[in-house]
Amino acid sequence: MTTKDPLRIGLLFSKTGVTSRQESSQLYGALFAIDEINGLGGVDGRELVAVHHDPQSDTARYKALLERLIVDDGIDVAFGGYTSSSRKAMLPVVEKYNKLLIYPEQYEGFEFSENIIYTGAAPNQNIAQLASYMASHFGARVYMVGSRYVYPYETNRTMQSLMALHPDRAILGERYVSLHANRDAIDAVLTDIRQKKPDFIFCTLIGDAVPYLYEAYHRAGLDPAVMPIASLNTSEAEIDLMGAGAACGHFTSSPYFQSVDSALNRSTLERFFASRYGQFAVPNMNWEASYFAMHLLAKAYRNAESDQLRHIVPCLLGSEIEAPQGRVRIDPSNHHACLYPRIGRANENGQFTIVQEALERVNPDPYMVHHHWGDEETEASSEVG
Predict the structure, then answer these.
(1) Whole-angstrom distance, CA of residue 379 vs CA of residue 358
(2) CB neighbours of 76 closer than 8 A, spacing ≥ 6?
(3) Three-class SS of residue 12?
(4) How many other CB atoms are found less than 10 A from the CB of residue 18?
């Protein structure tokens, strides 16, 4: 590249609204990575500059603000979205203008776009492992509670399919509440759960409703050693909101936890907490997916020696990088990331004790074609009670 003009990257993460806590972790993961990249000389001397707009957790605003980034701000690459509704609102915009959206969030799968890179877990990298683990350790009688939109509907459908593989399976309940549900709505669901006594509760609630469920469970005096809550999105950020006591003993399936035992993860966390962003976000799966994606993008710019998308995207596809969770790769066949499935149990310190993890990274299978999830894993701990 002969120019030294800055490379401007769009960021669409909410700092206000019902999912702002989670999206703030994505935002500050991206900004932290940008600072690291710029501190090392940028991209061949070119500074990365973030152009951030706040969608306020409003689906319609993601679409409008992405169009603003592209048309008014001249942005070719944007990071953004937490809910699947926000991603689906942005998808036709990036396809219309032939731009690139990087979506750093686990989701329900069953999607592909030439204009999106997905760096969170696909369903064969989290829910498949979680279903197998919970059924084998607790039983296959499940109660599902989620927020009322596409991600919980589709994820619960996948959980039902996976539970069908077990002879003792039963779906004892399937309840949905508003994204803006209050504590009374969650209390009503918990009353039904107490009556039906499932083997485990599968939580696909999003945003503020997540701590409401765990807090109500804790107040009721229920025992996670007998009937735990299992989730794909309850992270260290949600635990920070609800307190370690309410979360302790419950399970989450994710490629990344702060407790991943690697020198790179520990040093990355140390740098983040010492940075100007450390007080604003709790590192979690979304933070890490955003962080390593920004580093992958910078690597693609360097390798392409161009800032034109027709050169950048081929350099992203197949690209690898050492991330806090392990060495990740973008699968060129489906634009999803090759990741390391793990299951963590929340502990008394507000962190996760990893009880099962993959021995090697797992290629993404967003359409769950092969239903392969167990052979590559090892138990990190046999104690679940």
Answers:
(1) 9
(2) 70, 99, 100, 307, 309, 312
(3) strand
(4) 22
Output the CA torsion sign for 379, 381, 382, 385.
Answer: negative
- Binning pLDDT at 50, 70 and 90, where does residue 371 land? low
C-alpha atoms less than 13 angstroms from C-alpha of 172 in its C-beta half-sphere: 20
Contacts of 183 (CB under 8 A, 6+ apart): 212, 215, 216
Distance (Å, rounded) from C-alpha 263 to C-alpha 100?
Answer: 32
> Where do the DSSP E strands lie in 157-225?
170-177, 200-204
CA 137 centroid distance within chain: 24
How confident is the model over 320-346, as pLDDT tens digits?
999 999 999 999 999 999 999 999 999
- Is 199 strand, coil or helix? coil
Helix H or strand E segment including 310? helix 309-316
Distance CA 76, CA 79 (A): 10
Q: Token pair of 303, please?
A: 């390798």
Distances (CA, A) of 323 to 149, 199, 284: 31, 35, 13
**Closest by Cα among 188, 166, 169 to 177:** 188
* Residues listed for the chain: 385
46 near 34, Cβ under 8 Å? no
Contact 142, 118 (CB under 8 A): no
DSSP state of 125: G
Q: State both tokens at 59.
A: 């689906």
Instruction: State the pTM of this model.
Output: 0.95
What is the CA 94 to chain-centroid distance, rounded?
A: 21
Which residues, at least 6 apart from 304, have a Cβ–Cβ distance to it below 8 Å?
A: 311, 312, 314, 315
> 């025992």: which residue's tokens?
223
